[in-house]
């Protein structure tokens, strides 16, 4: 919790004024009982009306000053608390944006959402209370005890007794509640995760008629968190009657002892009245502290969870400036894999092993292989979503690990396997990677991606509002808009991670045809399942169990790679496959003859 207090640093002068205001408020509030004692003893008791009026006017002035300081302290505590929450939330979000995919998975998306919202709110409420009550309560209690001892030393043992019982009650309750707060936050993460999972997968749940199963899973999680919450609330509900009992018991005891002392000395009446008020202030101060300490355990758990995120050192470290090797000569864009191997955290074996190839500008390099062969993993290494385990990846002759993030990402136009759209207009989604894109560039990107036709049919066309996640457009439309977004960026490297899978054969062919002029000077990398999508690629990399088992053109691979032959055979009829194999044989024989002549 104390580590997060650094976010209060920008508001030090507001906090200083707040402390002064709280101190002045406490001082003048606690002058009132002593002045009341003077009115009773020296004014009313002695029949001196002038003392009553003079002291009464002083009390009015003190009350106004105290009220003014209370207003200032309340405003400043709310102001500082709100901006503290804003800064903490921004820092947390900025930190999460630096995470690699493995770090996101480590915490889980649901947990990160809970930490950014619920946990920050818990800490903010506690900080706001700390700035107001935590400063005022100790001051009030200290000054009240000093005044009480000075005005009625014979009765101070009552305050000591009341405070002792109060502290014992608080410590007992907190020792039982604190462990439950930690469990509650974990269960809240679980509930958030289930909610998110079920809402995003609602169509699948309905399609398989599994609503009741998911309801039972949610009910179990909901029951668990309710059970813990009930335990916490039952214990915390004991606090109010206990505090009321201690408060009323203290008042009764003060009056009882005070009356006995008045029988001996009638002038003790004013002192007794003042002491009762001071005792009340002490008890109220400890009640406020109790409220703070009730919130503190939960806030401490939340603060720990926030610090866990803020203290993460991302595995992927970016250079502040791209470090180019000595004697570096810029050349045409290229990507080179040098004996690259990769394994996920905790995995027993590599997903990729000793992968080497070069992709050049103006050429299309395609990747194909069975499910789980490592195609998407390989592609995801280029934007550094993960770092290689062994080997190196060079982009334009520079190791990826020597790049500044902005410079590398400016070179890449990435289209993920599942098209991702953001809430906003169609125009804004296409221009997401190039905020300065002109209307002409946006329309050209839409035309090439085969999106223009369906966009024209939408209400307001390019100003049509896409819902969160693109739920109001079809899968194919979502994929085409994702492709348009990459095209509008005009990058050096185009990465299509199985980005044509939702397109029909006709649209796929037309898109690839229109794509050629736009990518003629760029590196184009395509992951695909369909042979027809990559048939005309300049270079096809065949992967099997993370290893390169074939490299060449479509027809070269048909003659040399059994894995590629099997993939092609599975997608063509027997007659079509035979024709392709004969054509491959002729082309390969012709190529061999040409090499022999040369």
Lay out the secondary structure:
Blueprint: H1 12-44, H2 49-97, H3 101-107, H4 109-151, H5 156-200, H6 202-207, H7 211-237, H8 239-264, H9 268-310, E1 334-342, E2 352-360, E3 364-369, H10 375-381, E4 390-395, E5 398-399, H11 405-411, E6 412-415, E7 424-425, H12 426-430, H13 439-448, H14 452-457, E8 465-466, H15 475-489, E9 493-497, H16 505-518, E10 523-527, H17 531-534, E11 539-544, E12 547-552, H18 554-560, H19 562-571, H20 574-597
Parallel strand pairs: 3-10, 3-11, 6-9, 9-10
Antiparallel strand pairs: 1-2, 1-4, 4-5, 7-8, 11-12
Gist of the model:
By secondary structure, this protein is of the alpha/beta class. It has helices spanning 12-44, 49-97, 101-107, 109-151, 156-200, 202-207, 211-237, 239-264, 268-310, 375-381, 405-411, 426-430, 439-448, 452-457, 475-489, 505-518, 531-534, 554-560, 562-571, 574-597; strands at residues 334-342, 352-360, 364-369, 390-395, 398-399, 412-415, 424-425, 465-466, 493-497, 523-527, 539-544, 547-552. Helices cover 65% and strands 10% of the residues.
Distance between the termini: 76 Å
Structural class: alpha/beta
Beta-strand residue fraction? 5-15%
Residue windows where pLDDT falls under 50 for at least 5 positions: none
Cα-based radius of gyration, to the nearest Å:
36 Å
- The CATH class of the largest domain turns out to be Mainly Alpha
Widest beta sheet: strand line-up: 6-9-10-3-11-12
Outline: elongated
CATH homologous superfamily name of the largest domain? ABC transporter type 1, transmembrane domain
H/I helix tally: 20
